Amino acid sequence: MLGLGALAYFELTFEPSHLWGLAALLAAVLCAVLSSYLPWRWLPMAVGLVALGFAATILRAELMDAPVLAERTPVILMKGQVVDAYGHQDGRPRVTLALTEAGRLDATHRPAIVRIALRKTDERPLPGSWIELTGRLTTLPTPVAPGAYDFARAAYFDGIGAYGFAMGSPREIQPAGDTTLVERFAIWVASARHDASARIRAVLPGSAGAIAAALTVGDRSEISESDQEALRDSSLAHVLSISGLHMAIVGLGVFNVLRFLAALMPPIALRYQVKKWAAAIALVAAGGYLMLSGASVPAQRSFIMIGLMFVAVMVDRAPFTLRVVAISALAVLLIAPESVVDPSFQMSFAAVAALVSAFEAFDAWQTRRGQPLVLRDTWTGRLIYALIVALLASVVAGLATAPYAAFHFNRVAAYGVVANVLAMPVISFVIMPAAAFTLLAMPFGLEYWPVKVMGWGIDVMLWVAHRTSSWPGASSLVPSPPTWGLGLVTIGGLWLLIWRGPWRLAGLAPIAAGLLAVTIVRGPDILIDRDVGNVAVRVGGQLALVSGRRGRFAAEEWLERDGDASEVKDSARRGRNGAWQCAGKVCTAGVGGVRIVYAAKGTSAAQACADPPDILVTAMDGLDCGRQLTVGPAQTQVQGAYAIWAGDGALITETVRGDIGERPWTVWAAQ
After folding, report:
1. Can you point out the beta strands (E) in 16-129?
2. What digits encode the pLDDT tens for the residues 367-384?
3. Which of 162, 305, 506, 527 could cysteine-pair with 69, CB 3.0–4.6 Å?
């Protein structure tokens, strides 16, 4: 219910004022009071939680409010303090810069924090240093099509107001201002992560070292594209995101080691509640690891969950229940309600909730059976049982996260269960313990051998990933399902997980309906990107591009969202081989009884309108053939990218602006 309130905020096409938030908060308080008096307590409680989620999201947006760049700048001089620095697979290091000066932009129009891509030859500046550089700033990117991922929204809630790129090397300068205690602490943590990542990659160069840094301190930069693709197609990419597995190995590792050491000293073990002491110390260790890892949403969720587990141990309560999952979700959504639309939040909580519920059912089934599935009184029995548990966990987690992976990434891994069963023992018993020992040894300069051991484990994991991803049909692209379809799957999944009686199986109906949604909804017939650099038309069920060079990023996203594994060049070839007929700078296509003309730069009105089209798409302002629809820079700068459905000569048009509306993270040109 709290998540539904947050979703309601993001579904609006205007920005609600703080008075809306105040009214929602008062409604939540009123519902809390009514729940004590009404016989149906669950109803006001549910409404109150929706109102609270809505109010919390408005408050969060108000707290994150900062200037967002309105238009691309010319080449300017920028100065500021480096908040963070990291590598990238394209070879250009990135810096997150807290700006103090940016050309002629004043404080009311200058973004507080920007992300800058440096040149390939530049070294990464140290977090906390002050630099100046010459470059350009660009606006936050809007979605490539209505309903597509909103990059600007994600950047806004990360505090970033613009992207940019450097045209010269950064130069260190004297500090231009004081930093607060909180800022100094954040920079210290970033510096520690930067140093740890550099020392790991010094021992283990290449992509394996980058993976080791990702597993240890959350620095996922510089992993090779081939390794990333293999991990993604084998369903092992979740390992790179510091989450439950990593936090459990660090926290539970400290917990078990302390209990083991105490057991070696009977005077202590027999007189004191060592288990509770170990839980308290392990909680502190997990908190330190959270900060060092960069405190991503999955890491926050995992820390809250394992923290609640340790608290449960300290107060003699059951540590693994759906209540723990629910309280963790509640905490994350109250702290960062924007997480509700984040794929990592959705997938991590789907996996954890499904695992807890599945193993509760598994244990209950073994109890009803009267004996365990496998006796664990021998090493062979323990090994067989561990394999069964690993197989069950992989199947459950894979099924729970597959709809979200399909929705956000348009990808389903066919052999994810096999890859996880083969790789997880190495990850759990070699890679992650070595990562924990690396962090413990690093202050003493003794990280060489733990990193080497981690590297051997990573080589095995990559072998599994590359082998399984090379099998036929290892990864399939699927079209983007509609949002309501994912909503049905979520409702059905929650119903299936929460209830205990046989009526829980009723949750399978909305899950099935949600999965079938992708076969019901028809994708757009025409797509036009915001820069009017590229246009796609649907021919024979597939998108055909007018260009294989312009607007490549948008084109790649269009094909992926359409479930089309074709390269951009292949889609452009489809266009040249019949979908588009080009003469000079004018290309013509027909779809759904509608004739569309694309006029590139340098086209005259006489050329574009020689045979007046139903839709004119032009890279220049001023052209208009006076027919049904004209889309040029003047229109796309105001409305964003276009999606058009054509049938029997009629047009249904959707735009990005019509989809997301007027929000603080997006700046539109004046009408």
Report:
1. 76-86, 94-102, 113-117
2. 888 877 777 778 888 888
3. 162
